[in-house]
Every structure is written in structure tokens, then in C-alpha cells.
Design a protein that fits this description.
Radius of gyration: 31 Å
Oligomer: single chain
Strand content: 5-15%
CATH superfamily of the largest domain: Fumarase/aspartase (Central domain)
Shape: elongated
Number of strands: 8
Largest sheet: 2 strands, parallel
Helix content: 55-70%
Number of domains: 3
């Protein structure tokens, strides 16, 4: 795409009849959005073709005029895609650039296209169409990430690792359970994405500038032609509504938070201190000074990008909070936060998918780590409770055992029954199996737990929901 600020074609404003002087350079600079909204050219052309067909149905355009407009718009699309279209900053936005070029190509007929619409309802349409298209791609990337997590869970269902609270070893869990915890988070993100897509399916075209149009516009025809779910039945709401963008930006922020938490664990797990995983060479980078380094840059960068996603949501919320009805030029500030969040989400999901594909699991290192920090202390407390000891008493007994091991430098996991009986007569020989962390996960029998059966149930449910 080329930017032609000097204008090799006529630069007169399409709204210039009322003005005696041309815009000053700073007015043109601050008004222009073509540098970022040009990405909506497909949607603008698609909407214009549907609008032209509706004008033809109303009798405003005859069949020959409709043909000229549609052919002209198709040729403009081809010019843009081949990089031959000269975008003019003085024409401000994608709508006026395309309309001006159409009139150049087909003459006076091109000037009829804007009948019964305003740039206010036109841009509201374009952004819904654009976001709807991008959501389809994002949904596929998000689904691919969930599928990868399910595959990791299936492949490593035997791997046991520490579960953490406060980043302290708490209880043994299965690695597969940990992966599925993120899968469920991303499934909820997909629901939020579906909600954003549904919010895009409210047709604004036909609202005009704010009050409706002086023509019997067939909005039902346009709705069906562009595959919208329903029509926005209040023209003032139609041109001022940006809730659908906020819904997407909220989805992006929550997704970013989930990705960031996952990436934080990948950074920790790939460190020498943990050593639970290793990342492929093609998704890590080196140091300019330390030759031994292999850094988890994708995880760190995705973690960092979450701040941008949060910022974009708050940016638009702030723009919207003080606007009177209906359209105000402030709304031009809706596009850059949206486009940036779309790009950031796509890049982050692509990076996560690439990183997880080559991630290797160090099962032995994970298993060794569960023999730390008295990871089966709760199992022992439950053992006593099941023998009839009130849980608060059993909790205190096990706490005393832990303190004894710390003070006497005794290995908790090799305690003998005789030693344990000195703390409670309810201990019997079967306690030695209870102490072993490797067997802890299978004692978790509640629904949604970390046992093998529960994990298999989760995998089945996730596959059913995603139809994979």
C-alpha cells in the first residue's frame, strides 16, 4: 500500500461544500486515520456492495449503475491487494479513499453510493465486520492451544509433580491435571470470545448519521446479505455503540492474564532450579555475553504483552466514559486499541502454540520434587480423620510431626510406624503407603481431582466440548 499525501488524484473533501478554506496541515494530520483503518478495506467494500444492492432494490440505483459500482469496488479491492492503490491522507479514512477512487473510475454513478448512509453507520458496520472476521481466526488459534494442552495431558498422564500454593510445595498433583487447569481457563476464554462475536452481530447500517435516513432502507435485506443476527433498532445507539469492541478487549485482557500466568510457570519450570521442562532451541534465544544461556523469550514476551492488552481496554473505556450521544470524533480512538489487541492476541497465541509443540517434560525431576516440604502432610491428617480423629486434632498431630522432622533433621518420607505411633496410637502399618507422595494423587477421589480417572474424565469432556 502506498501513501500519497500530496495527492496524485483530486484532494477535495467529499464534505467540502460548506467550507471556504481547505484544512490546515495539522487539521489533516490529526484527522487522518487512513494509516491504520486501511486494514478494513475488505469489510468496507463488502458493506458497500451490500448497500449498493439494497439501493438497487429500492430503485435508487438501476441495474447498470449497480453493476458499475460492484465492478468498480471489486477492481479497487484488487488494486489494494496488489499494492497499486494510492492512499491519500487528505481523504482521511478508508471510506473516503475508496469512495473517491470509485468516482474516479466510474464517474458520477460513484457519487450515488453514499445515498441513505453516513460514515457514522458505515464505520460502525466496518468495525463489526472486521472484528467478526478476526475473531474466527483467533478462535481457531485458541482451540489449537487447548488441543495441545490436551495432548500434553494424554501423553504425560503418568507424570507426578508438586502442586503449589504461595509458590511453596503443597501437595502432589499430576502434570496432566496442571495442563488441564489451563485448558479449562482457555475454554472459558473461548466463551467470552463467543460473546464478543455475538455482540458484533447487531447491524448498525441504516441508522444514518444518528436519526435514521429519509429513504425506505431495507435493513432486513442488508442484515441477511451480511449475515447479521439482528438489526439495531435505535439509530442513536447504533452509531454510538462500541460495546462490542469493549467485549473483545475484555476477552483479550482476561486471555492475556491466563497466558501470562502460564508463561510465568514455563519460565520457572525451565530454570535450573526447577528443571521440570525444556524448550526447543528454535523458541529460545541466547545471551550476547553469556554463552551458556538459553532464554525462554516467547514466554517472557507473551507475559509482558498482557500489559498492552490491559492498557487497550482501559484506553477505550476512558474514551467512552464522557461522550454525549451520538457520534463524536473521539470514537476514532477506538481503532488503534482494537487493532493492537487483535494483533497482540494472534501473535501471542501463535507463539504459545509454537512453544508448546516442542516442550519436553522431565518426569524424573518432577517426581523428585514431590519429596519436599512434607507434601503428603495433608494425606496423613486425612488418614487420622478417617480413623475417627477430629480433623482439627489430626491437623495438630501432623503439625507436631513436621516440627519434629525439622528440629531433629529427620526425613519425613522415611518415618517408620513406630515413630509415628509416639504421636498418635491411631497410626498403623498402612501409614507408610500414605506418606509416599507418588501414591497421593490416586487417593483424590472427588470429582475434578488430580486422580487418573478424574483426568481421563476431564479429557473426555474437553474433547466433547471442542468436538475433537
Amino acid at each position: 500500500m502506498k501513501d500519497n499525501s500530496t495527492g496524485k488524484r483530486k484532494n477535495e473533501k467529499l464534505w467540502g461544500g460548506r467550507f471556504a478554506d481547505s484544512s490546515s496541515p495539522i487539521t489533516e494530520e490529526i484527522s487522518a486515520s487512513i494509516q491504520f483503518d486501511s486494514r478494513m478495506y475488505r469489510q468496507d467494500i463488502k458493506g458497500s456492495i451490500a448497500h449498493a444492492e439494497m439501493l438497487n432494490k429500492m430503485g435508487i440505483l438501476n441495474d447498470e449503475e449497480l453493476k458499475k459500482i460492484v465492478n468498480g469496488l471489486d477492481e479497487i479491492r484488487e488494486e489494494i491487494e496488489k499494492g497499486k492503490f494510492l492512499f491519500s491522507r487528505s481523504l482521511e479514512d478508508i471510506h473516503m479513499n475508496i469512495e473517491s477512487r470509485l468516482t474516479e473510475k466510474i464517474g458520477e454513478t460513484g457519487k450515488k453510493l453514499h445515498t441513505a448512509r453516513s460514515r457514522n453507520d458505515q464505520v460502525a458496520l466496518d468495525m463489526r465486520l472486521y472484528l467478526r472476521d478476526e475473531i474466527s481466526l483467533i478462535k481457531e488459534l485458541l482451540k489449537s492451544l487447548i488441543v495441545l494442552l490436551v495432548k500434553l495431558a494424554e501423553k504425560n498422564i503418568d507424570a507426578v509433580m508438586p502442586g503449589y500454593t504461595h509458590l511453596q510445595v503443597a501437595q502432589p498433583v499430576r502434570f496432566s491435571h496442571h495442563m488441564l487447569a489451563y485448558a479449562w481457563k482457555f475454554i472459558r476464554d473461548m466463551k467470552r470470545l463467543d460473546h464478543a462475536a455475538e455482540a458484533c452481530s447487531l447491524l448498525p447500517l441504516g441508522a444514518g448519521a444518528l436519526a435514521g435516513v429519509n429513504y425506505p432502507a431495507d435493513r432486513e435485506f442488508v442484515k441477511k446479505r451480511l449475515d447479521f443476527r439482528e438489526i439495531n433498532l435505535n439509530s442513536m445507539d447504533a452509531v454510538s455503540d462500541r460495546d462490542f469492541i469493549l467485549d473483545f478487549l475484555y476477552f483479550a485482557s482476561v486471555l492475556g492474564m491466563h497466558l501470562s500466568r502460564f508463561c510465568e510457570e514455563i519460565v520457572l519450570w525451565s530454570s535450573a532450579e526447577f528443571g521440570f521442562i525444556s524448550l526447543a532451541h528454535n523458541v529460545t534465544t541466547g545471551s550476547s555475553i553469556m554463552p551458556q544461556k538459553r532464554n525462554p523469550d516467547i514466554a517472557e514476551l507473551v507475559r509482558g504483552k498482557t500489559g498492552r492488552l490491559y492498557g487497550n481496554l482501559f484506553s477505550l473505556l476512558t474514551v467512552m466514559k464522557g461522550l454525549p450521544m451520538t457520534y463524536n470524533r473521539d470514537l476514532q480512538e477506538d481503532k488503534e486499541p482494537l487493532f493492537d489487541s487483535i494483533d497482540t492476541v494472534i501473535l501471542s497465541l501463535e507463539g504459545m502454540n509454537e512453544m508448546l509443540k516442542g516442550m519436553k517434560i522431565n518426569k524424573d525431576r518432577m517426581k523428585k520434587a514431590i519429596y519436599r516440604n512434607f507434601s503428603t502432610a495433608t494425606d496423613i491428617a486425612d488418614y487420622l480423620a478417617q480413623k475417627g480423629v477430629p480433623f482439627r486434632d489430626s491437623h495438630e498431630i501432623v503439625g507436631s510431626i513436621v516440627r519434629y522432622c525439622e528440629e531433629e533433621n529427620v526425613d519425613f518420607f522415611n518415618l517408620k510406624t513406630e515413630t509415628l505411633k509416639s504421636f498418635s496410637l491411631f497410626f498403623d502399618n498402612d501409614i507408610e503407603d500414605i506418606i509416599d507422595p507418588a501414591r497421593s494423587t490416586e487417593r483424590k477421589i472427588s470429582q475434578g481431582s488430580t486422580s487418573t480417572d478424574s483426568i481421563k474424565d476431564q479429557i473426555f469432556l474437553i474433547k466433547s466440548r471442542l468436538q475433537i
